[in-house]
Amino acid sequence: MKLIAFGVREDERPYFKEWVSQKENLELKLVPELISDETIDQIKGFDGIVSLQTTPYKREYFEKMKAAGIKVLSIRNIGIDNIDLEAAKDNQIPITNVPAYSPSAIAEFTITQLMQLIRHTKQFNEKMQRQDFRWEPNISTQINQMTIGVMGTGRIGRAVIKLLQGLGATVIAYDPYENAELKAEKIYVNSVDELYAKSDAITLHMPATKDDYHLFNSETFKKMKDGVLIINTARGTLIDSKALITALDSGKVGGAALDTYEHELPIFNHNLAGKKINDEVFNNLYKRDNVLITPHIAFYTTEAVKNMVNVALDCAYTYLTTGKQNNPVVKID
Ligand code: NAD
Ligand code: COI
Fold first, then answer.
1. Which is a GO BP term held by this UniProt record (predicted)?
2. What percentage of the chain reaches a pLDDT higher than 90?
């Protein structure tokens, strides 16, 4: 069996090496680059692909996979919004993902960012750089005095709810597909508008779909409490960034923590030190002292990375040896 893994970082290599050392007659090629127009032709001669990227998996890549005889594409992450799923089906390429490599990783990061927002850590850090050690005006609220709205109660949303409850927050939630346990706890609001109206902070934990493109826009911001805090560790396209800027200017939104940004691809996970960033919307958000931007790192823990590598490799291996498709994203009959 021959597998090729793309987008392999140094921190992932030990897990790849350990996994392959336990297999016989298995060749594994590790490629640091992502799948792109420049690298896609490297798949020739392999049986399966194991990849991780937020850049698009385009139709022509699936055409090339079919032509090269690739039997499975196993992604090492959760989100599938960057994959042309129709093209995968049309070209008979089954896809697997890793749906729960560590919901706690993202949940803990969500709480970290919420705490940083309410404790004004960016403002205090900036003041202290100038040896300004005064308290005022950056007084904080407390999580146990807040109502937090959780949108999306899947794996990550549920992990966030547990942590918030542990901290004593009043938690309310919205999800079109309600979870029975949470329903019994009476956490769900009757409508998403009720969540907007009641929440001091709103945290997003749902996938990016066409229907939810710019779900947070000038109209939805109007329905929220004045000074609401927004946390987005889900996907950047859920928020209309220009509308967010207007809402921050007016004070409608009191602060935001963005681990994902709708135009993040040319910026996140690149070293742009000393370079001009040609994205005025990003630059506007980045310089604000009540906006925390992080480069899509909520997932980035050793536990999560180990699981992403091992589970994705297991999915590819199982499919190629038994035909059984674990964690199916695209199923081919
Ligand atoms: P999940 O599939 O387990 O749960 C998603 C939930 O969202 C589901 O219960 C679904 O019913 C709900 N949902 C769908 N549309 C909704 C809507 N309009 N309003 C409210 N809820 C809605 O997914 P998950 O594993 O919990 O992942 C959540 C998000 O986090 C995804 O966007 C994923 O890509 C993202 N993510 C980000 C990182 C990161 O590093 N920042 C890491 C992993 C996952
Ligand atoms: C995901 O797993 O969907 C993430 O957002 C993590 C990222 C490395 C792609």
1. L-serine biosynthetic process
2. 100
